[in-house]
């Protein structure tokens, strides 16, 4: 792993610096959740803004537009290389599509870093959006709200992908090493447990590299 380590300590605690890809989609909601957990945040719009981060969230939005803007801004190659090197990333909804190794019935794939196959708009159109509650053992001790908006789901996973959650037998949350992906939008709820899980994940990955 060769990405930059630049953790800060305040009052003896490590201060995490987490980015949110800010080219399109639901950025501010993720920013607000991260700030509520005490993280410093960066809205990533340029390749150099990927430096000195301890993780990044790829938000929901329009995956085709986000994929195009990733390449136009020059972020695409640098981000893919960092993720392949072990950089922590979490993709929500469209962000999950950007990470997927394969997208059903789609000519164009994107970063193809995660060993999953995704079905776009699997739950239908905007009017088919819904809210449900699930207890996810890896994340929480009680049921938490899961918001689905024109959501994809995962139809196939590789052998090293951990399935974290299913809804109606459909796979909607997975982790593969340094990569986390969800079909739903924790940032659109008042629950912080998924964001805390990701921040802890970033911390643990960086702790493997850093000795104080």
UniProtKB/TrEMBL annotation:
A Pfam family found in this protein is SNO
Q: Where does L-glutamine bind?
A: 61-63, 120, 149-150
The EC designation for this entry is 4.3.3.6, 3.5.1.2
What's a single GO MF annotation on this record?
transferase activity
UniProt pathway? Cofactor biosynthesis; pyridoxal 5'-phosphate biosynthesis
Q: Which InterPro entries match?
A: Class_I_gatase-like, PdxT/SNO, PdxT/SNO_CS
Q: What biological-process GO terms show up in the record? A: L-glutamine catabolic process; pyridoxal phosphate biosynthetic process; pyridoxine metabolic process
An example of a Gene Ontology cellular component annotation for this protein is:
cytosol
Reaction(s) the record says it catalyses: L-glutamine + H2O = L-glutamate + NH4(+); aldehydo-D-ribose 5-phosphate + D-glyceraldehyde 3-phosphate + L-glutamine = pyridoxal 5'-phosphate + L-glutamate + phosphate + 3 H2O + H(+)
What is the active site of this protein?
A: 93 (nucleophile), 185 (charge relay system), 187 (charge relay system)
Q: Which SUPFAM superfamilies match?
A: Class I glutamine amidotransferase-like (SSF52317)
- Write out the transmembrane intervals: none
Q: For this UniProt record, give its keywords in alphabetical order, as a comma-separated list.
A: Glutamine amidotransferase, Hydrolase, Lyase, Pyridoxal phosphate, Transferase
* Complexes and interactors: In the presence of PdxS, forms a dodecamer of heterodimers. Only shows activity in the heterodimer.
The family database entries (PANTHER family) matched by this protein are listed as:
PYRIDOXAL 5'-PHOSPHATE SYNTHASE SUBUNIT SNO, PYRIDOXAL 5'-PHOSPHATE SYNTHASE SUBUNIT SNO1-RELATED
- Family membership noted in the UniProt record: Belongs to the glutaminase PdxT/SNO family.
Q: Which HAMAP family match?
A: PdxT (MF_01615)
Function recorded in the entry:
Catalyzes the hydrolysis of glutamine to glutamate and ammonia as part of the biosynthesis of pyridoxal 5'-phosphate. The resulting ammonia molecule is channeled to the active site of PdxS.
Specify the protein name: Pyridoxal 5'-phosphate synthase subunit PdxT
Q: Which organism is it from?
A: Clostridium luticellarii
The taxonomy runs:
Bacteria, Bacillati, Bacillota, Clostridia, Eubacteriales
